Amino acid sequence: MSSLPNTMKGVLVCKEGGPEVLEYRTDLPVPSPKECEVLVKNSVIGINYIDTYFRTGLYKAPKPEILGKDGAGKIASLGPGVTGFVENDPVVWMHTGGYAEYTVAPAERTAKIPKEISEEDACAAVLQGLTALSLIDEAHKVNAGDWVLVTAASGGVGGWLCQLLRARGAHTIATVGSQAKVNDARKLGAEKVVVEQEVGDEGVKQVVQEKTGGRGVVAVFDSIGKITFDRSLECVARKGTLVSYGNSSGAVEPFSISRLAAKNVKVTRPTLFNYIYTREEFEQYLDELWRLMTKEKFTVRIHQKYPLAEVAQAHRDLESRKTMGKLLMVP
Ligand SMILES: NC(=O)c1ccc[n+]([C@@H]2O[C@H](COP(=O)([O-])OP(=O)(O)OC[C@H]3O[C@@H](n4cnc5c(N)ncnc54)[C@H](OP(=O)(O)O)[C@@H]3O)[C@@H](O)[C@H]2O)c1
Q1: Closest ligand 1 atom, residue 269 Cα
Q2: Which CATH superfamily groups domain 7-113+301-330?
């Protein structure tokens, strides 16, 4: 883009706290890409649950900080040494600094969007879709016929997990927080949907026992963390895996490793960015995600698009457990 402005709209976090610390500004400096980086003019910005952890201080980062791990838009300029992109290419990126009109991202973590996919869908799919894909392939390789338990099944990552597990021929028991989400989880592929608030932990365990003939599930994909860890451990079958990949209710407390011996259970606490560390891994997973979206007609679920200025409301909605699918913002 030949002429770039000096300032941009964006959201700054200067101190840890509730949604009120998200400061909408119109005077932030437009960043410049350095070696091997690109500048993207975002048409759409993703919100992920992790953004709330950096806002509250559960995860630490220097402040002031611009939150936001994914976005899509057009290449606005290229830093020195960048090849493979030209200005105006439609791209999706995963990095930090998303809550703004312009974001600098490493070229390595930026990818062109196939023609058949909109910038909006690419942004909505990239981080949550790749997380789900890597979890069922690497955190615990799920096979056809396996019974698994997925928490927050109508959420962003949870929704992708349900669709992927159905496509793989696995059987999903899903938990959701309210009746309003039951049909959504079912449509996405869950065979049995349990409303946590109605049945409690004992009810979830009972359904797992019934569905698996008392054996337990071969894997639990637990995004809730602190309050569900013990229950998840009890739901896993002998030699199964507890994949604890999120902290929506807070961080899991330390526990005694000897508890795992009761069933020879594996516990893993993975992050997406250690599965797609290299460019090769990023491209390989992205190719599969684009294929699922274009050829297998996977559903990209967008809960709502908010104006960037309404970022605090978007965080409130996400944390109040009423969202289904991805939250996006428009700068
Ligand atoms: N490890 C990784 O690399 C990685 C990558 C992406 C996301 N994640 C994690 O995956 C989880 C899901 O992320 P997402 O962005 O897709 O969000 P999301 O699942 O769309 O939203 C969070 C959902 O968590 C459920 N939840 C249960 N207990 C909750 C509580 N005490 N407070 C708030 N929510 C609660 C709610 O669903 P119900 O009401 O239906 O239970 C809520 O809708 C997050 O924990 C996130 O940190 C991890």
Answers
A1: 1
A2: Medium-chain alcohol dehydrogenases, catalytic domain (3.90.180.10)
How many Å apart are CA 79 and CA 8, to the nearest integer?
19
Is the model's pTM score more than 0.70? Answer: yes
In the CATH scheme, what architecture does the domain 128-273 have?
3-Layer(aba) Sandwich (3.40)
Per the CB < 8 A criterion, the answer to whether 118 and 300 are in contact is no
Tokens coding 224 = 């809730």
- How does pLDDT run across 80-119, given as a tens digit for each residue? 999 999 999 999 999 999 999 999 999 999 999 999 999 9
Ligand 1 pocket mutation, candidates 69, 188, 247, 321, criterion most atoms within 8 A of CB: 321
Please identify which residue in the block is written with the tokens 């294929």: 291
**Every domain of the chain and the residues it spans:** 7-113+301-330, 128-273
Residue 177 CA, closest ligand 1 atom number: 39
Q: Quick: pLDDT tens for 297-314.
A: 899 999 999 999 999 999
pLDDT of amino acid 297: 85
